[in-house]
């Protein structure tokens, strides 16, 4: 028996199990169909799971939601989305949370006005698990969820007592990108860089990066520079990525100076820092603008940096003769060495 035939036989047996009288059997069948995932996305399976959403057993309803979520976009029919939206009003927190997770997995296909409105309402649920799951679902709804009303509600949720909820709110705002980059949101993200929770700080950094140049104010850049001293490597890594996404607006001497001073235990720069530095120092003119002392510092990292390939040693030499600044001699020699070029200075 081939794999496909075996899978079909298993699915047929599980469909039969959904008609069983035992809560345990029905619940287990829902869970198993969820594990099979997209391969279980037949009309009959989806119809049976929809019926299970109205079962008197909380566990069956919850596992039916989960199964539809694991089947994913193939289960995201109009009827399924309506039923999952109804499940957001279930009396059980577990069922509501499972419905949120299923809608999250269906993503933008599930982003109807009714679903978004109910997820926003769930942000005020008494259960922290429900609030957190609702927030995650909104984060996967794409631009349809990035309305002023939704963003306002998410900003209010930043005061939530639950660390998980706050962290997920920042992640959701980040997923909304530039649409969520209001002054109020950016101010909240900057404040979150000093939160006691590592996950909150991490997701705040990620969000600022996802908002790109719209978030690249002087205050934000100053705070991100300070965050390069965060005790968490993941946060520091996220800061570097944020700078990389902010483009030319992050091309400030304080950014490069800080990045040049965060080598790891082996004396090398993190790859994310390398990407940012290479992205900023893309021409001789840019390099000259940052001055010889900083460039000398960066020369320590040698071939780790690719920016030297974009620099003209001749232009640096011309600048030396123009400024008569002897501090340029060392970086000129080091960059020439990196490029395998000979240097001869005749005025």
From TrEMBL:
Lineage: superkingdom? Eukaryota
Molecular function as annotated in GO: oxidoreductase activity
**One Pfam family, short name:** HEAT_2
| Gene3D superfamilies the record matches | Leucine-rich Repeat Variant
Repeats (HEAT): which ranges? 115-153
The job of this chain, per UniProt, is described as:
Catalyzes the hydroxylation of the N(6)-(4-aminobutyl)-L-lysine intermediate produced by deoxyhypusine synthase/DHPS on a critical lysine of the eukaryotic translation initiation factor 5A/eIF-5A. This is the second step of the post-translational modification of that lysine into an unusual amino acid residue named hypusine. Hypusination is unique to mature eIF-5A factor and is essential for its function.
Q: Which PANTHER family match?
A: DEOXYHYPUSINE HYDROXYLASE, PBS LYASE HEAT-LIKE PROTEIN
In Swiss-Prot or TrEMBL terms, this protein is called Uncharacterized protein
């Amino acid at each position: 028996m081939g794999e496909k035939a075996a899978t079909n036989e298993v699915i047929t047996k599980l469909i039969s199990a959904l008609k069983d009288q035992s809560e345990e059997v029905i619940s287990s069948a829902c869970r198993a169909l969820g594990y099979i995932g997209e391969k279980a996305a037949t009309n009959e399976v989806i119809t049976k799971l929809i019926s299970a959403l109205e079962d008197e057993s909380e566990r069956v309803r919850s596992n039916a939601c989960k199964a539809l979520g694991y089947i994913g976009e193939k289960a995201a029919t109009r009827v399924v989305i309506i039923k999952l939206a109804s499940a957001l009003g279930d009396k059980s927190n577990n069922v509501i949370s499972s419905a949120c997770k299923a809608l999250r997995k269906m993503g933008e296909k599930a982003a109807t006005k009714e679903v978004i409105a109910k997820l926003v309402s769930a942000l005020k649920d008494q259960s922290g698990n429900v609030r957190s799951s609702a927030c995650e679902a909104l984060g996967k709804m794409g631009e349809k969820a990035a309305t002023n009303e939704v963003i306002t509600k998410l900003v209010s949720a930043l005061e939530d007592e639950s660390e998980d909820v706050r962290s997920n709110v920042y992640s959701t705002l980040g997923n909304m990108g530039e649409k969520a980059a209001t002054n109020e949101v950016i101010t909240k993200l900057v404040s979150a860089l000093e939160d006691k929770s590592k996950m909150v700080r991490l997701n705040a950094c990620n969000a600022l990066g996802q908002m790109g140049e719209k978030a690249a104010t002087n205050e934000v850049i100053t705070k991100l520079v300070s965050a390069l001293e965060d005790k968490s490597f993941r946060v520091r890594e996220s800061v570097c990525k944020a700078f990389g996404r902010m483009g030319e607006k992050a091309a400030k001497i304080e950014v490069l100076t800080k990045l040049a001073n965060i080598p790891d235990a082996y004396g090398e720069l993190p790859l994310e820092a390398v990407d940012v530095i290479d992205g900023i120092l893309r021409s001789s003119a840019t390099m000259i603008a940052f001055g010889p002392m900083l460039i000398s510092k960066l020369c320590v990292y040698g071939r780790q940096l690719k920016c030297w390939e974009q620099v003209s040693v001749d232009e640096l030499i011309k600048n030396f003769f123009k400024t008569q600044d002897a501090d340029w001699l060392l970086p000129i020699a080091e960059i020439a060495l990196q490029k395998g070029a000979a240097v001869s200075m005749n005025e």
